[in-house]
TrEMBL record:
It comes from the Eukaryota. InterPro entries: C2_dom (IPR000008), C2_domain_sf (IPR035892), SYTL1-5_C2B (IPR043567). The keyword Lyase does not apply. CDD domains: C2A_SLP-1_2 (cd08393), C2B_SLP_1-2-3-4 (cd04020). This is Synaptotagmin-like protein 2. One of its GO terms (molecular function) is neurexin family protein binding. PANTHER family: BITESIZE, ISOFORM I, SYNAPTOTAGMIN LIKE 2. It is found in: Cell membrane. Keywords: Cell membrane, Exocytosis, Membrane, Repeat. Pfam families: C2.
Length: 350
């Protein structure tokens, strides 16, 4: 059924969440967990104030250093977030889309108590011009709240393929409200075709040589369709897998890299044992798809399979945020022991 397979053992409990001594895998790698670390460009508070004002900036590409430069000059007439104190503490944040991973974010310093901040800062991206021309620049302004959620003040999006690169002058642009689709995070990143199965401990009978002493979760990553194409040559993709709340390096699994294909076929099976039935309501399988490059990998999208309760062993966690489709998929697996459950789930920002 699959060209590669890997297994890893887990010992879940409420106090100590570390893999058992017998952990083994054919695909282990020494990288740290990305659990909960991938930030969406859309994170924040959108409903508190209406977008208003303008931003002054210029764009340039340094051919010699292969560097994209965003010259952020200033903003005028921004919305007031704290009406009682009549203040906003604004900063400017940029992303290159469709790359919305943490590595794609740049931001200016925070200017306190002003709706007319002056920055005069340059935000830099090391990127090939050919790659840059298939991206969009998302430039947004935010109020910085050190004790809560930052508030969205407005944005502008620039299609870099149609940008006039001879224009290096500073120009003013009106800040726009976030679109409804953006607020809801509706951006197509592709879909993952996979099957999952839960084998309860001892459920295969005493005569079965493969009868697991503890429960097993089987994850069969079949293929992904319609991935974001970051380069003209395509995308070199692979899938990472973690079982949360275990965030140790031994929790990490990955597929091989499929090159130059926006519809990669992985056909990769992972088996996690050490699962007791009661662990299924507190655990979450995180599958993320990445574009592989020599210097850094780019996040393309992911899914989280769990109950989406926001809690794990009674502790509030941000990664227990499964969508309705992901929750339904996990619940079907829980209710159909020893059966493969097949699904086609949309990738999303995590």
């Amino acid at each position: 059924e699959s060209d590669t397979a890997s297994e890893i053992s887990f010992q879940f409990n409420k106090h100590k969440k570390t893999p058992s001594i017998g952990s083994h895998s054919s695909d282990m790698a020494s990288v740290s967990s990305v659990s909960g670390s991938v930030l969406s460009v859309y994170s924040g508070d959108f409903g508190s104030v209406d977008a208003q004002g303008t931003v002054e900036f210029a764009l340039d590409y340094d051919e010699k250093n292969r560097e994209f430069q965003v010259h952020v000059s200033q903003c005028k007439d921004l919305a007031v977030v704290d009406e009682k104190k009549g203040r906003s503490d604004p900063y400017v944040k940029t992303y290159l889309l469709p790359d919305k991973a943490r590595m794609g974010k740049r931001k200016t310093s925070v200017k306190k108590r002003t709706v007319n901040p002056i920055y005069n800062e340059v935000l830099r991206y090391k990127i090939e011009k050919m790659v840059l021309l298939i991206q969009k620049l998302n430039l947004s302004v935010w109020h910085n709240d050190p004790l809560g959620r930052n508030s969205f003040l407005g944005e502008i999006e620039v299609d870099l393929a149609s940008w006039d690169w001879s224009n290096r002058q500073l120009n003013w642009y009106p800040l726009k409200p976030r679109s409804l689709s953006a607020v809801n995070g509706v951006d197509h990143r592709g879909v993952m075709n996979l099957s999952i199965k839960y084998v309860p401990p001892g459920s295969l009978g005493k005569m079965c040589p493969k009868n697991p002493p503890s429960g097993e979760v089987h994850i069969w990553v079949k293929d992904v369709k319609d991935l974001l194409q970051l380069r003209p040559s395509g995308v070199d993709s692979f899938v990472k897998c973690y079982v949360l709340p275990d965030t140790s390096k031994k929790s990490y699994q990955k597929t091989r890299v499929i090159k130059r294909d926006t519809n990669p076929v992985f056909n990769h099976t992972i088996v996690y044992d050490g699962f007791h039935t009661e662990d299924l309501k507190d655990a979450c399988v995180e599958l993320t798809v990445w574009d592989h490059e020599k210097l850094t990998n780019h996040f393309l999208g992911g899914i989280r399979l769990g109950l989406g309760t926001g809690l794990s062993y009674g502790i509030s966690v941000d990664w227990m945020d499964s969508t309705q489709e992901e929750v339904a998929f996990w619940q079907e697996m829980m209710s159909a022991a020893n059966e493969w459950i097949e699904g086609l789930l949309p990738l999303r920002s995590l």
